[in-house]
Amino acid sequence: MVDNQGGKVESMALNIKDEETHRLASKLAKLTGESLTLAVKISILERLARKEQVPEQKSRIEALMRFSEYCAPFFKDGPSGNELINELYDEETGLPK
Predict the structure, then answer these.
(1) Quick one: how many helices (H) and strands (E) in the chain?
(2) pLDDT in tens, 63-90
(3) Residue 12 domain flag
(4) 85 vs 65: CA distance, rounded Å
(5) How many domains is the chain built from?
(6) pLDDT (tens digit, 9 = 90+) per residue, 13-37?
(7) By residue range, what is the domain housing residue 78?
(8) Phi, psi (rounded to 5 degrees) for 6
(9) Measured CA distances, 78 to 17, 31, 33, 71, 74 (Å)
């Protein structure tokens, strides 16, 4: 095997030992009409692109907080969460109305 600069590179192999992973990669290759190698390569490139575009989130809570801050302006004119709960449950008994 020769690299882009004309130098020799040892042959490389990816040995997938997990049956489900191999099955999924084969299914993807069949659906796309690509070779198994190309299907795996494109999948890895796409995932790398997504990871490089979006900074890693520290936690699910952080992601939910950002999402709620984004959505909050869309719900500013509606009833609050407490108001919605009070509409559903009887104040004295705590049972649904």
Answers:
(1) 4, 0
(2) 888 888 888 888 778 788 888 888 898 8
(3) no
(4) 21
(5) 1
(6) 888 899 999 999 999 999 999 999 9
(7) 19-88
(8) 90, 0
(9) 54, 46, 50, 13, 9
Exposed/middle/buried for 37, CB within 10 Å: 0-12, 13-18, 19+? exposed
Answer whether residue 9 shows pLDDT above 80.
no
Distance CA 97, CA 44 (A): 53
Name the 3-class secondary structure at 96.
Answer: strand
Q: Is residue 53 a part of any domain in this protein?
A: yes
Alpha-carbon gap, residue 61 to 67, rounded angstroms? 10
Domain-located, residue 47 = yes
* pTM, full prediction: 0.46
Q: In angstroms, rounded to a whole number, what is the distance separating the alpha carbons of residues 97 and 75?
A: 25
